[in-house]
Design goal:
This protein is an all-alpha fold. It has one domain. It has 10 helices and no strands. The chain has helices spanning 13-32, 38-64, 71-96, 109-130, 139-154, 160-183, 188-216, 219-222, 224-243, 248-252. Helix 1 runs antiparallel to helix 2, helix 2 (38-64) packs parallel to helix 4 and helix 2 (38-64) runs antiparallel to helix 7. The longest helix is centred in the last third of the chain and has 29 residues, at 188-216. It is globular, with a radius of gyration of 19 Å. The two termini are 23 Å apart.
């Protein structure tokens, strides 16, 4: 008898709202304001929003999980959110192609800036709903981001949005490794807060910088397609370190 997987396995309303609807709203605003075409925006913003939603949810689960038998179901939900972002970016690649985004100044940048505020508000709502804002307000996290951003802004050679995008990724990378070192040194909860919380904050700042660049005309300097690969690699590494499942050999031998 052929095994089937219910379609409902791949459907989650909250994930759909955070990723698909948010991407659609911003892509429409960019297109209608005369900036980058909608599908090029979807190509660049889908993956970061998908990863953000996945990690924001996983962060809350990691801090509050009491029944460890539910780890797999929560991991599946995390990957569903990332899947939505990947599908959005994939559609954008097929329709818009992989040509680098051009710097285009819209005729109505205020519409993009207002939509950026909406996107940021949705992201903050997701963070607060999952873990609350408190765990993100950590002296170590604030110290890492403040130091990196101060250095980046003091020595910047790019537009402000591109500089923030680069600083957000570098800060997140530092947080991941600092947090993992703490976690394997028996500071488990603190390590989770630094590594996962730092990556979530970094993605939030990157998404905001990317959105602002469509209003200021600095899209090309960020190079969203290249940045997507960097964020995927860093997020994949973190997921592997925290949520790696048993191998197929171990599962079948039970």
């Amino acid at each position: 008898m052929t095994e089937t997987i219910p379609l409902s396995t791949y459907i989650d309303v909250n994930s759909f709202t955070i990723v698909v609807i948010t991407c659609g709203i911003f892509a429409a605003a960019s297109h209608l304001s005369g900036s980058t075409k909608a599908f090029a925006v979807l190509r660049d913003i889908g993956i970061p929003l998908g990863l953000f939603g996945a990690l924001a949810g996983a962060f809350g689960v990691s801090l509050n999980l009491t029944d460890y038998a539910q780890v797999y179901s929560y991991t599946a939900l995390m990957l569903i959110t990332a899947l939505y972002g990947g599908i959005i970016s994939g559609i954008g690649i097929f329709v818009a192609g992989q040509q680098p985004t051009e710097n285009l100044v819209p005729h109505s940048p205020m519409a993009i800036y207002c939509t950026t505020c909406v996107v940021s508000a949705i992201c903050l709502w997701a963070m607060n709903s999952s873990a609350g804002i408190g765990p993100y307000v950590s002296p170590i996290l604030l110290g890492i981001f403040t130091a990196v951003f101060a250095l980046a802004l003091a020595t910047r050679k790019k537009a402000i949005a591109a500089t923030i995008a680069d600083a957000a990724f570098f800060s997140s990378m530092l947080c991941v490794f600092v947090g993992l070192i703490a976690r394997f040194s028996d500071f488990v909860q603190l390590g989770v807060k630094i590594s996962m919380g730092g990556l979530v904050i970094g993605l939030l700042l990157y998404i905001a910088a990317l959105c602002v660049s469509y209003g200021s005309g600095g899209q090309a300097e960020i190079n969203g397609q290249r940045q997507n690969w960097h964020w995927l690699e860093l997020t994949g590494f973190l997921i592997f370190m925290y949520f790696a499942p048993e191998t197929l050999r171990e599962v079948l031998s039970v």
